[in-house]
Amino acid sequence: MRRIFKFGWIVLFSAVISVLSLAQSAQNLVAGVGPITNSIAIWRDTSAINLISGNALFPAPGNQTVFYIGVTQGSSVDVGNMVVYVTKRNNTKILDVIPVTYRGRTSGSILLNVSSCRVVPPSTQSPCIIRLDPLKRAPSPIYDYYFVMYFSNTVNNVAVDSASSLNSRTIIIGGINSGDQTRLVPGNVIPASFLNKGTANFLVGVMNN
Amino acid sequence: MSNVSRINFTTGQCRSNRSNEVLRRTTLLLFFVAIAAQSFAASKNLIAGAGPLKSATKWEGRTAFSVIPGAALFPVTSTTTALYLGFTGGSRADIGNMVLYQTNSRDGVITAVMPVTLKAVSNPSIDLTDTTVCPDQPVSTTAPCIVELDPLSLQLAASSDYYLAIFFPSPDSNNASLSLGAPQFFGTGLTGFMSFVDDTKHLAGDTLNTLINAGTPFGLIAVMSN
């Protein structure tokens, strides 16, 4: 009897370990951006909008969401604010606003130096991919998520160029709006102008780690 | 050591402790199983559905086809399949019939026909102004009415394609002003087409005309595990 239980515990322990290891390896939550181009430059006083549609989410495990943004030009990105607007799927009424941070802050300058980027200066061939702080919740298929980044009115942002899809079939849908579009509150409606470009800007991947 | 074992084995106290241990470990095991089952029970997409919607209008006398290509399915195993329809305009949808055709992947010959129902009815009339059905009024592309059809006891297979066909009878003024949701942007794995007759009466062995694909589903916005 004891041997049976011992064997059972070993099997259970192995299962738990394998589940944990699965959870720790990063998996895509949507089809992100493949080959990159730099379609949009000059981000001063401008917001980048990226929609992660609940209907298109992959069935990946995990309990967090990690955004990866790509920059193809510039020496510093001056972020004014970052938020995620949550709506019911296919609906534009905002239910919740979640702050998004990088190293604990929703605003500030991201220096595109060797501590942040694999290659300096960044380019379309070697974009700087920055991992934002994980959101402590997994996305749900019955909600849509609008990730909005506002770029401050600074000289640095004049030289910033966003990573954008080069004909790859990402399902992240994007837009560019002037001004700070991160100040909407629950009950507001996502403006029709938000998704005016079709493809993603800056956001190149959404993963569970 | 052998004496200790013998002594423990012959006392009632030892058996009691072992019983407690068994109970404790079984409880833990059940807890893990419950947690795992809960995570598996969460509703998951079976394919990339439609994001922001536009309207496909005027469905009187038409059949809306939405195709679920087996080649585009996510690697999820689910013994049930839930189909979600999105209505973006109109006051009532008068459905004549709904079926799901199964074919071999990339083949037009129907291998199976499955009835599709809403509350056990294959020809429902859906009141799009009823807030218990459509909480967000008025129904529009930015506040669509999303209706979950009765889940099918069906495990989608990558080796098959699935055609959801919904016929809207004519004459019918409700259907004349009805709008179905269709994807505004690329990215969904769904596709589809429409026809101008009742195409829900085909039988297994019939061949669907798969050469008229419009590249967009009509009405079907999501396919989930439940």
How many β-strand runs of chain B? 12
Summed over residues and divided by their number, the pLDDT of chain A gives a mean of 89
Question: How many strands, which pairing sense, and closed or not: the largest β-sheet of chain A?
Answer: 7 strands, antiparallel
Rg estimate of chain A, integer Å: 19 Å
The helix content of chain A is 10-25%
N to C succession of SSEs of chain A = HEEEEEEEEEEEEE
Instruction: Kindly estimate the percentage of residues of chain A that lie in beta strands according to DSSP.
Output: 25-35%
Show the largest interface.
Answer: A-B, 33 and 34 residues
* Range of strand content of chain B: 25-35%
Percent helix of chain B, as a range, is: 10-25%
Q: Would you identify the regions of chain B where 5 or more consecutive residues have pLDDT less than 50?
A: 1-14
- Helix/strand structural class of chain A: mainly beta
Number of helices of chain A: 1
Average pLDDT for all residues of chain B? 88
Query: Could you tell me the number of beta strands of chain A?
Result: 13
Which structural class should the secondary elements of chain B be placed in?
alpha+beta
Any idea what the shape of chain B is?
globular
Rg value of chain B: 25 Å
